[in-house]
Amino acid sequence: xxxxxxxxxxxxVSSGNYLIHLCxxxxxxxxxxxxxxxxxxxxxxxxxxxxxxxxxxxxxHGYSAFFKNDSxxxxxxxxxxxxxxxxxxxLRPGRDSDPISLRRPTFVCxxxxxxxxxxxxxxxxxxxxxxxxWMQTELxxxxxxxxxxxxxxxxxxCPLVVANTLTPNDDRLLHNQAAxxxxxxxHLYHNYYNSDxxxxxxxxxxxxxxxxxxxxxxxxxxxxxxxxxxxxxxxDMQKPHDELRRLMESPANSSDINNTLPVYSEIPLSxxxxxxxxxxxxxxxxxxxAPNATVCCDESTGLWMPAPVYRRNRRGGRGEWNDQYKKxxxxxx
Length: 333
Prior knowledge:
about 325 residues, alpha/beta, 4-stranded mixed sheet, 11 helices, 14 strands, about 15% strand, disordered C terminus
């Protein structure tokens, strides 16, 4: 059974193949109605991106900056086409779900209500995050911050080019609802993206190699936003400056990355998936330890934390810390 399978279908609406769940459907000015207005704009924007992508390196809207060469076109195209269609997703094995079944991609409003309280807590722990990705599920939780930002990128968000380098090195192209949705949908439609070191700042993303760009979810969002905003100032990738040439040949140094705004955030795989949020919240409140897991419940807050995991000893009581966490604690003393 899918997590958040609607018990009250009155609060589940759709836009194309996308579902919008627990967003106060039917209420004036609800998040559900806002999403139903936004998603057609995103579909339209994706069609523009797909048309521009056909030009490959001849594009004037940043394809070369974000994906480097025409050999990447087919892979990039497939990701955008799946987004535009809202293709149902096949979940990987490892969750309490049938891996053969397909799930419709679902946006969930993470409000401070009993049904979504757990998701709301995750949003509050990352207050600069407008939306999240719940890994290996069909769910994209929308945090309260999402509704406070503009819908689309504007021409004023476009970067400049100085010394054949995009500047300033920031993520303003991503500070809009449409681009953030696109970036999060990459988590559903690209099996090999890299979630450990996503680069959201425009200069950093443009300095990735071709292979690294394909694995960087924000690159898809940046290109989408550049097309939407009409950005045309991009480096000449045929004549890159020395530093850019070096970076095109070797992986970017993640230690030099300055990401101050976590515009993307993920709910870890180790958070258990159960039939509905009420059950998950009850389990969290009742849990004392989580055997064979990498998180356990902080009973004082009800939050799942990357904490030491207790194992039962032979008498059925609490045992020692899991070795990996014990080593971490020893190193902090």
